[in-house]
Amino acid sequence: MFRIIWPVCGVFLLATTQSAFAAKPLGPPIEEMLASPELTRVAAGVAREKLEPPRVRFEITDRFSGESPDELALRLDDQTYSDLTVGQTYIFAWTDQRKVALLRKVHEIDPDGPSVVSVRGLSTKALYEDSPEIRSLLTPRNMSSADDAAREIDALLAQMKREDVRSRDLVVAQLFLKPELSGQMSRAQADTLRQVLNMPGLSAQHRDNLLQSALRMNEELRTPWLAEEYRRVIILHGARHDLNSFVPGLVKNSAKGLGQIGEPADVELLSILLYANNPGVARVALRSMDRLDRAAAVARAEQAVERGWVAKQTRRELEKYLENGSKAGN
User: Fold this and answer.
1) pTM of the prediction?
2) How does DSSP classify residue 118?
3) I need a surface site. Which of 31, 44, 248, 304 has the fewest CB within 10 A?
4) Is 100 helix (H, G, I), strand (E, B) or coil?
5) pLDDT tier at 13, thresholds 50, 70, 90
6) Under a CB-based contact definition with an 8 Å cutoff, are residues 210 and 174 in contact?
7) Which of 76, 111, 130 is the last residue before a domain boundary?
8) Which residue, 168, 200, 221, sits at the end of a domain?
9) 92 backbone dihedrals φ, ψ, rounded to 5°
């Protein structure tokens, strides 16, 4: 007879508030997930039964990190509970502890029982559809050689191409927050990354993270296609963005990237962003324009001020730029 442990709503390494980010920089999520097996355990199990929402009973089949009983009743969030398919095998990180209020490094047993964790910095629960790649990535090991890095990159890219949104959230963040991997990519891996970027339905946040990862690749692997990706983002989204979405960040980082690897002719495209409804986007676009062709940037800045269609904060930035005759933002 199996003993059921009622999982905790433990968010162990995992808080997504700005104050938490300020306290500790985000690291690669897989390493964080595996860092403290006494607090966060990683296991595979078959979803046997949906209990009272949002709990699910799992039969444990494999243990990757820390100890897990033969059976667990884990608490999920409503969306994950709804998406879960009974009878399917999942790999998940769970905890039966929670942080003690006001004591950041002290934990206690969660009275609400065990739960699947939310990895710090990610918007999804750490519950993934079973695959060889996710098993490989969540198996603790020392990754020190170039061959180890190549295997990790291959697994990350292969998992990105799967339909499992939660695991894509994990592996995109892993590549982004482990920047040394991008510099070790091969031609074939760079080609696979391009394929991922061309996948339909890729979220703005994932596209942004992947484009930033691509910028870290060796120059010969990202020329000329990465600059074209940046141009495509700017053309697609234009200057009016949903300020409650990840789109302004995607456009801003695309403008920044284009300023690093673009051509003087890109000033014309970037000048569209001077009229953005997000002043931060306009500010970065101006910096990139200045970097690519200062004389053209000055002309476009003067034109934007004369037209008067720019946001008030952007106007101040443009006027400061024109008065100082220095690089934008200095």
Assistant:
1) 0.88
2) B
3) 31
4) strand
5) very low
6) no
7) 130
8) 221
9) -150, 160
